[in-house]
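Hey team,

Filing this mostly as a record. A colleague (T.K.) asked me to run one chain through the structure pipeline before their review meeting, and I want the input and output archived in the tracker in case anyone asks later how it was produced. No errors, nothing strange. Just documentation.

Input sequence:
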Amino acid sequence: MTKLPPVFGVTGWKNSGKTTMVERLVREIAGRGFRISTVKHAHHAFDIDHEGTDSFRHREAGATEVALVSGRRWALMHELRGEEEPSFEDILARLAPCDLILIEGYKRESHPKIEVRRKDGRKGQALADDDPQIRAIAADFPVPDTSLSTFDLNDVSAIADFILDQCGLGRRHAAE
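Output structure:
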């Protein structure tokens, strides 16, 4: 069995800026020469296909998996058709080799994470209070009373350095 690359998560309440943070981290870390994969957990039904396309028609006809392939990209859609949602580990195992996997969501999984907070975001308990896997906090306001590393939400370079250090990948810069 192939060893999985390091996994690091971006977590936070809804509308805290997780997607923006993952996007910015991918751009920063990939710009340093690392191969990055991402996994996004959705709590709702979603569709990457739309009515009328050939692949949509294949799925609607009952195909369990549909691979859509072109000279520029490929996608594999898997319809669960009553099966349980695949485990976090099963999804990670399906990814192609890379240097780092960034996770958005999957709050309850036991991988290391950074919590994203916004001053105008959801009020209430911080996730770090109950999750020992949260290693740092990125916020748009000063975070009081924490022993965790804290970062300005916009200091993506420092956050990327922290994640790379946590994952034992070393720091590269864009020119390397």
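Quick notes for T.K.: Residues 18-31 form the longest helix (14 residues). The radius of gyration is 18 Å.
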